[in-house]
């Protein structure tokens, strides 16, 4: 058993180096064009993040579809990662009780009464076969059983030991403007009882705005120590452009255009949804709207099982504005996996004077926005299209990792979410 476990760990180490480069930082990615609607959430709440409290009954769910008539023999591999979502050097036997980190994806459903045939797959963790024991980040790599070296998609979740006490505050009165276009965070992290002996050097703090990874902030040292607390305040890295509220549309009922939808058309083999044309908001006053900060929910009218009965719709986005010469414009949100690639990139139609993009999306209620990525950079900007306001409702999620000298892995010892704006 020991020799077999070591062999599996060695094979895992080889496969780690075959992972696509994008597995780091943003672990949620699809690499095969037939796979769609990848969601990674809490198992009992598809609006909650994929985070498990160590030692609890929490579970996460990974759901995805393949546009196909028959299921594949899929398997997945569970890999422990560092704070940047890069695989670390732990062997599977160090974070799984029996040392086996691969299992079949055997929870699947055929689509029913849909124009597009697909198979929905679901992975729920932990389960009897895969019950990780260490905190930190975990990458799930899905592959075809017949091609184990070829990655179809990846997903990520975290296990947190709630040992650090995090106090997070956000304000529109920042070090660069007051109640204008930015929001600024301040943090206090107390690590008493967490095993952290040197909080000034042994903590890694990460902050995400609305689950975006392009502007994720990493802090490796506090601005000061105050008794048992590591303080992070008046730091330029903690000032974020406010953006505007996410835009919304619904394709729940394909007979009647829902919110944000101009018209439907069926042209074999797909339904087509043309969304209402969008315009820039950078020069318009801030307006509150109740959104879910870029998330989406699969929904379809007259069915209690949208997992297998929601249809697929070619969804057409248009953004009417002059071309931005020095940047690319992307559709951003969970609907594009928060990635800036050829799928989410908008193409400028000079004849129509607008940006255009078409996405194949499952019926549901969606949030999205338009971000501009200047040429030669990787961080997206809200300002050129959406504009920025200090009053915007944004979610800031804070992750605190313990990274002791000589440690073999980075423990996740705290997580907190603070909401800015109204």
- Which homologous superfamily in CATH is the superfamily of the largest domain? Immunoglobulins
What structural class do the secondary elements suggest? mainly beta
How many β strands by DSSP?
28
**What's the N-to-C terminus distance?**
57 Å
Oligomer status: single chain
Largest sheet: 6 strands, mixed
Count of domain modules: 3
Mean pLDDT: 94
Number of helices in the DSSP assignment: 3
Low-confidence stretches: 1-17
- What's the architecture of the largest domain in CATH terms? Sandwich
Q: Do you know the CATH topology of the largest domain?
A: Immunoglobulin-like
Rg, please? 22 Å
**Overall geometry:** globular
Helical percentage: under 10%
CATH top level of the largest domain? Mainly Beta
Strand residue percentage: 35-45%
Write a brief structural summary.
With about 425 residues, the protein is mainly beta.
Question: SSE layout and pairings?
Answer:
Elements: H1 2-16, E1 29-30, E2 35-42, E3 51-53, E4 60-66, E5 74-81, H2 92-95, E6 102-104, E7 108-110, E8 119-125, E9 136-144, E10 147-160, E11 165-171, E12 182-190, E13 203-209, E14 217-219, E15 224-226, E16 229-232, E17 239-241, E18 247-250, E19 261-267, E20 270-275, E21 296-298, H3 306-309, E22 312-320, E23 327-332, E24 347-349, E25 354-362, E26 364-374, E27 394-402, E28 411-420
Parallel strand pairs: 3-10, 20-22
Antiparallel strand pairs: 1-10, 2-4, 4-8, 5-6, 5-9, 7-8, 9-10, 11-12, 12-16, 12-17, 13-14, 13-27, 15-16, 18-26, 19-20, 21-26, 22-25, 23-26, 24-25, 27-28
